[in-house]
Sequence to fold (982 residues):
Amino acid sequence: MPRALLALILVLLALNGTARAAPAETAHEIAERVDSAYAAGERPLLSALRGTPYGPWVIAEELCFGAAHSAAHALAAEAADNPVHARLPAYVKWRIANAADSQVAARWRAIESIHRTATPAEILARMKAEEAPASGVMAARWRRLFARVLGEAKPPPAVRVAAHRQAGDACAKIGWHAGAMHEYAAGMYGAIGIRANEEALALAHALIPVAKEGQSADAELRGHAVAARALRALGRRSEALPHARARWGLASTTRRRRDALKALLLLEMETGTPYKPGRDLATLRALETELGNDVGVAVVDLRRAVDLADMGRLTEAVALIRDVVEYLDARGKPGHRRGAHLNAAHIALRLRDWARAREHVRKARVAGEGLGYNEGTLDVIEGTVDLMERRYDDAVAAFRKALPQLGRADLDERFSAHRNLAEALGAMGRLEEAEQTLAEARALLTENAPAIYRLHLASTLCTLRLLRGDVDGAIAAGEEAWRLRVPGSATASDALVTTRLAVAWWRKGDAARALELATEATQIVLDTSSTLPDRLGAQHRSELQRCFAWGIQAAASMKDVSRVFAFAEQERAVALRTRLVAGDLLHRALPDLEATEGQLVAAEARAVGAYRRAAASGDAERVRDAETGVGAARAALDAHRDRMHATRAVAAQVLHPRVDSLDEVRARLGDDEALVVYAAGAIDVYAVVATKDAARLVRLGRRGAIENVIRTAVLSDARLPAAKAVSSLVTALTKPLALPADVKRVRIVPTRAVATVPFAALWGGRVTRFIPSATVERVMAARTTAGGKRVLAVAGSRTVWGAPLLHAEAEARAVGDAVHVGKAATEERLRALLDKPERWRSIHLACHGMIDPTHPLRSALALEPTEGFDGLWTVSEILGTRVSADLVGLSSCSTALGRIFNQEGTLGFVHAFLVAGADRVLVSAWDVDDEATAALMKAFYAAWQKGAPSAQALRAAQAAVRAQPRWKHPAFWSAWQLWGLR
Fold:
């Protein structure tokens, strides 16, 4: 230690030191008494220590000092019966072998006597005045005493750490394992306390070999724990991992095993090292349970939810994270609540549920307020949401706010912030800034960085080069990203990069390559959304709909009508199709299929993990073997799914929906019938026109132009002339189809805004019917049971929205067999009737409806409230109800509307009632006239009850209303659409 620093410490101690109280009898005096008792033959020697503040180790040391070797051996032998003192005999033997000369011993006794009575300043002054031993046991003791007294004086922490380090080195030099371990440990924790991580690491590395030599698993464990902690703080996580594993192997008690496993899992997660999520998390959960730590169990479940999301089991992840967040919000500390919402936000990002992600970020900020947490990670999440919602200015601001807050250890967040910032800048046309930001992201990566980072870089670079018009450069970057993908492990990111590469090849003029890539991208989207709940599955496919649009565009450019149809069919209502066939009987047939599939999926996951480890090793032979393993696992899974579709077709539609081919659909058409599938490509809108004899592709025009026609052609307002609007819609949507004259019936599969078009006003003599998709229609026909006999009619008088429905009651009485009107039209009664086993010919609801396009599950039909029922029968509640009916007639305003999920379709009442069990749903595309609606419904039911097909009955009813001069305008009759079966 520098003399100037020691002098300063002595001055401080002189001012602040306090005197000590001397014990009644010193250790030296007791040792002399023990030596006398030994010489006199008195036993046991330990009895002389009773009532004194000293134990056998101290007295044995004093006996060695006084060269009373025989007495020291005897005392150690007696004490060894106690496991605490089992190693005392070995120490005495070692201590005698390292005895100090008499002069050094005398000087040491003098200092020790001062230590018992003087202040720290006086002791340090005496030690400074004395000449310290240069080597041997007395040098080690001198250093240890100096470190201890210095600690009592509370010097600057760095000075104390240095003193412990010197004392430990002196003890280690002579093989004094216990002393070295004690001093190194004290120095380690002191260094960690002042964040001197390099010094803590050096002390840990010094402690570990000494602990091994001294056979102290406890000290070795502490050394590995501090080493892992220091290396992680220094950003050297890969080096920390072996220490964390060693710590886990040495831990013995429940608490230490819990702490060691938590630290190990954290490092494995941060380094991307494949661990065994099921085993390790199950072990950690069991340890937390054994400790009675319910909050700890919840935190483990939080980690499990993230793992489930990583494995693509998003439905399970959502359910688990919801429970964990609810529990920690109620019982967790602020830090726990913040962590729960932070992880929930990350899962919401995987689900592409932007609103939920933003809400979890808000709650995480509230939970962590005032606790000093780094907000950079939350800013990155918010910026990502802004980017996905195309709020580019907000996204740029969020990422730039986040970057200065993220430390060196936050590589994933820093990389994501740079890459997403580059994408936002590119979308704003600030391409030079975007490429500079991407270069900064690349500079963050080391040679050992996970391949996924390089994949994201190449994918974003492909996008930027596309925006710049550099098609060849975009292809080069996209192909690099393509090579970096993990085989057999599909993600949304893979779908995006595949789509970007398809766009580049399409612009290059190679439509065949673009089509091949778009086909693969769509399959990735379907695979990654198949485990999601209905609404989230639709939203996921909607957010990634560009791959379907580019597939349509590429197939259309090659005039491949079958492929255009396949893309259009795939993108529609996968979740709806699944739910249509998922009845109770079917679910009883699924467990065996799911069990077999679970085993094959687990085998595939293990193969993918082996591939990742091989890729990280850089061993080309291992990589080739791992690729073969992934291919074999994927082939086994595909073969199982093929067998399912061959032998258990209906059940297979639940687990892995597949679409019908165009030839299969055409075979089901009648001689006078056509199927028109409207399909929006990336640039143009097309129609697939199929009859029993042929199929052809028709280009309708640019997407923007078609949507503009639909938006501006207003037929819902009877005050505006209709001829021009009808003419523009006909020119855009029906005339180019050139349907043969013998086609009398048309099934329409709409896309986007086409779902709101009043086709009844465009095709004069033809009967029209909407279907979600051709495959869905087939599945619906297969599930249909025996037809119902009666009509249940409900007319609500509740006027929470709009004017009173003056004609609704008369309408219900005219069409219904079981009629509930006025105050009897309660939600409670209706749902009680639906719980009965009777299948209805029709369920007719004449009431007000509220459409919420932002949150379609909240759209509701207004019935009468009762205790326990608010009278608002929402889409969400309908989805959870069994609606056994041939037809549901919604005599309400705008019931065909909802939230449009791009080509996926509209989530609203139609979707809900078809899923709930109805074969057909009659709805309106805008706010309709009460009296005209009542007349139309009476005419419809009259024709339908006489045996006319539902679509034909609707056409007849519309013609009857139109024949009335006052209702001639299409606003009164053309809004009505029939969805579902014939």
In short: Residues 638 and 694 are 32 Å apart (CA to CA). The first helix runs from residue 3 to 16. The chain has a mean pLDDT of 80.
